[in-house]
Amino acid sequence: MSAPLVEVRDLAKIFDVSPPWLNRVVERKPKAFVHAVDGVSFGIERGKTLALVGESGCGKSTVARLLVGLYQATRGGVRFDGEDIAETLAGANAHTLRRRMQMIFQDPYASLNPRWKVLDIVAEPLREHGLVRDGAEVVKRVGELLDSVGLNPADAEKFPHQFSGGQRQRISIARALATRPEFLVCDEPTSALDVSVQAQVLNIMKDLQRERGLTYLFISHNLAVVRHVADQVGVMYLGRLVEVADKAELFARPRHPYTRMLLDAIPDIHMTGRARTPVQGEVPNPLNPPSGCSFHPRCPLANERCKAERPSLLEIRGVRVACHAVEEGRAG
Amino acid sequence: MAADAPSNPTAGPSTLRRLLDGDVWHSFRSSPVAMLAALIALVCFVCALFAEVVAPHNPFDLATLELLDSLKPPSWVDGGEPKYLLGTDGQGRDILSALMYGARISLLVGIASVLLSLLIGVSLGLLAGFVGGRTDAVIMRICDVMLSFPSILVALMISGVGRSLFPHAPDMLALVVLVLAIALTGWVQYARTVRGSTLVERNKEYVQAARVIGVGPLRIMRRHVLPNVLGPVLVLATIQIASAIITEATLSFLGVGVPATSPSLGTLIRNGNDYLFSGEWWITAWPSLTLVLITLSVNLLGDWLRDALNPRLR
Amino acid sequence: MTAPLLEVSHLRVEFPTRRGTLLALDDISFSIAPGEILGVVGESGAGKSLTGAAIIGLLDPPGRIAAGEIRLAGRRIDNLPYEQLRRIRGREIGAVFQDPLTSLNPLYTVGRQLVETITTHLDLTASQARARAIELLAATGIPAPEARVDHFPHQFSGGMRQRVVIALALAANPKLIVADEPTTALDVSIQAQIITLLKKICREQGAAVMLVTHDMGVIAETCDRVAVMYAGRVAEIGPVADVIHRPAHPYTVGLMGSIPAMDEDRERLLQIDGAMPRLTAIPPGCAFNPRCPRVVERCRAERPELAQVGATNAACWRPVTVEAVR
Question: Which ipTM was obtained for this model?
Answer without folding.
Answer: 0.87
